[in-house]
Design brief:
By secondary structure, the protein is an alpha+beta fold. It folds into three domains: 113 residues, Rossmann fold (3-Layer(aba) Sandwich); 66 residues, 2-Layer Sandwich (Dna Ligase, domain 1); 99 residues, D-amino Acid Aminotransferase, Chain A, domain 1, CATH 3.30.470.20. It has nine helices and 18 strands. The longest helix has 20 residues.
């Protein structure tokens, strides 16, 4: 039995679940936000012998978690307090207690995890950490500075003649006054320099700008590698960050990745203790591949739909033991 932890409306999970169903594979989908209002999680220690850990979902199905063969930590939400708890402070307390129970269960599952257990995913997603692991494996990386010191930042800017981009250390959707803002990689402007002193308040990643022929998204599933090229330089919208891409104007095609780069991508996923990873590379005009970052739980349908690369089938294979 396979457990898929995700939220409602996850088209990526739906695509893989459709393939699993066609193979007569038993898979249970669970959204932890249903706990505790519509679902039950239970841990029983009998005193002697192993614990028995169970999930009862909103449909009344009982799943013995110790009998799972694999789980997919896709995009689960946190537990949500039942609506009858009116006090916000009480609701926050309940949600924290439920979160600890749920995460204790997911973190201790002894079967195959895709991409990994939650603590491993969290660690692998830290950009400074993954940059160092990539460098040790032989990837070329951009000159990079992580700092809260305005003077160090300005020195870095001068050393690279103003050809510098910045991006957040971790979150790219800060909220403020009830609004959510997108924060992507962007070039440093003269106006930004006027506010450099604000760096004292929050760290930032600054990197020397790397010229691009193409951007390459490499999706690794187990030991299988699915590279796609993103022609981000055809538009000013995507020149610095392809996530601004216009599907009708930004060509996305299969990419012929050199064997040594492909092997290095698999080695990075393995070094981060993952079974899945979406790696972003730059292909420079002179043919060098430069590592930017890896997303342990990156989206893949947009690549699959644009190129026909069978990423969903590879994930289904991985979950069912077809790839390790």
């Amino acid at each position: 039995m396979i457990l898929v932890l995700t939220c409602d409306g996850d088209e990526h999970a739906d695509r893989v679940l459709h393939l699993l169903k066609a193979r007569d594979v038993d898979a249970v989908v669970f959204d932890p936000s249903a706990y505790p209002a519509r679902a039950t999680l239970e841990i029983v220690h009998p005193g002697t012998g192993p614990a028995v850990r169970t999930l009862r979902d909103g449909a009344g199905r009982r799943v013995v978690l110790d009998e799972l063969t694999a789980f997919w930590y896709r995009r689960p939400l946190d537990p949500a307090a039942p609506p009858e708890i009116a006090s916000s402070s009480c609701a926050a307390y309940v949600e924290e207690e439920c979160r600890v129970v749920a995460e204790s269960l997911w973190d201790s599952l002894g079967c195959l995890g895709v991409p990994a257990s939650r603590p491993v995913i969290d660690r692998a997603g830290r950009k400074p950490y993954q940059l160092e692991r990539a460098r040790r494996l032989g990837f070329e990386i951009p000159a990079t500075l992580v700092t809260t010191d305005p003077e160090t930042f300005l020195d870095f800017y001068d050393r690279h003649e103003g050809r510098v981009i910045t991006k957040p250390v971790h979150g790219n959707q800060p909220t403020g006054q009830g609004e959510r803002f997108g924060r992507f990689a962007a070039p440093v402007t003269p106006m930004d320099l006027g506010h450099a002193d604000a760096l004292r308040l929050c760290p930032v990643i600054a990197q020397a700008y790397v010229p691009k022929r193409l951007e390459v998204r490499v999706t690794v599933v187990g030991t299988r590698v699915f590279p796609a090229e993103i022609h981000s330089q055809v538009s000013n919208h995507t020149k610095y960050d392809w996530r601004h891409y216009d599907p009708g104007a930004t060509p996305i095609r299969r990419h012929d990745l050199p064997g040594e780069v492909s092997e290095r991508c698999v080695a990075l996923v393995r070094a981060l203790s993952l079974t899945y990873g979406a790696i972003d590379l730059i292909l420079t005009p002179d043919g060098r591949y430069v590592f930017l970052e890896i997303n342990p739980n990156g989206q893949f349908l947009w690549i699959e739909d644009a190129t026909g690369l069978p990423i969903s089938a590879a994930i289904a294979d991985l979950l069912t033991g077809g790839s390790t």
